[in-house]
């Protein structure tokens, strides 16, 4: 076995010397090639085969996609169309309802503004009337207090003058009683 292996290694070395040298010329089908030309030719052939393989794969995918497109069945979207129609109807109703609510709110706001303005005018008018009445009452009260004060002063003068007169009369009667000699006996 070692002998066979050595023999094979020797054969390979001989083939390498024969085919790998610079001066080696290989003749194929009447054409002569050097090892460098064979390498370039092998590169070109492998590139061409790789390109052909890639083209074949693209063509195979194209044909498969063409078959899938030809066999394609459009899905039934009628249920979606019905649902969309219902949604559009609901949307329209909601839009109408929203518009009605908006208009009602505007009208309510206008009514509230009108009522508020009316109340404000009424309150201002009432305030003016109350202020006028209060001034009149204060004026009348001052006049009444002045009259009462004058009446009280007059009453006080009258009372003081009557008391003075009464005191004089009492003093005079006491004096007469003291001066009367018969009153002591």
Task: Walk me through this protein's architecture.
This protein is mainly alpha-helical and 185 residues long. The chain has two domains: 2-71, no CATH class; 78-184. It has helices spanning 2-20, 35-71, 78-179; strands at 26-28, 31-33. A two-stranded antiparallel sheet has the order 1-2. The termini are far apart. The mean pLDDT is 84.
What's the quick description here?
This protein is mainly alpha-helical and 185 residues long. Helix content is 85%, strand content 3%.
Q: Give the overall average pLDDT.
A: 84
- Helical run tally: 3
Cα-based radius of gyration, to the nearest Å:
69 Å
| Range of helix content | over 70%
Residue share in β-strands: under 5%
Strand order of the largest sheet: 1-2
How can the largest sheet be summarized?
Answer: 2 strands, antiparallel
Head-to-tail CA distance between termini: 199 Å
Order of helices and strands: HEEHH
Q: Which stretches are low in confidence, meaning pLDDT under 50 for 5 or more residues running? A: none
């Amino acid at each position: 076995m070692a002998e066979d292996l050595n023999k094979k290694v020797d054969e390979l070395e001989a083939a390498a010397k024969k085919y790998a040298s610079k001066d080696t010329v290989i003749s194929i089908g009447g054409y002569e090639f050097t090892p460098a030309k064979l390498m370039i030719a092998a590169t070109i052939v492998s590139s061409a085969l790789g390109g052909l393989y890639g083209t074949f794969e693209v063509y195979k995918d194209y044909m498969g996609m063409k078959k899938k497109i030809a066999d394609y069945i459009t899905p039934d979207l009628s249920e979606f169309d019905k649902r969309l129609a219902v949604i559009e109807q609901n949307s329209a109703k909601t839009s109408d309802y929203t518009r009605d609510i908006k208009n009602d709110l505007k009208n309510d706001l206008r009514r509230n503004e009108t009522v508020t303005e009316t109340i404000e005018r009424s309150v201002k008018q009432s305030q003016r009337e109350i202020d006028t009445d209060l001034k009149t009452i204060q004026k009348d009260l001052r006049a009444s207090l002045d009259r009462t004060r004058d009446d009280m002063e007059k009453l006080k003068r009258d009372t003081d003058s009557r008391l003075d007169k009464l005191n004089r009369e009492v003093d005079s009667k006491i004096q007469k009683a003291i001066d009367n000699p018969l009153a002591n006996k």
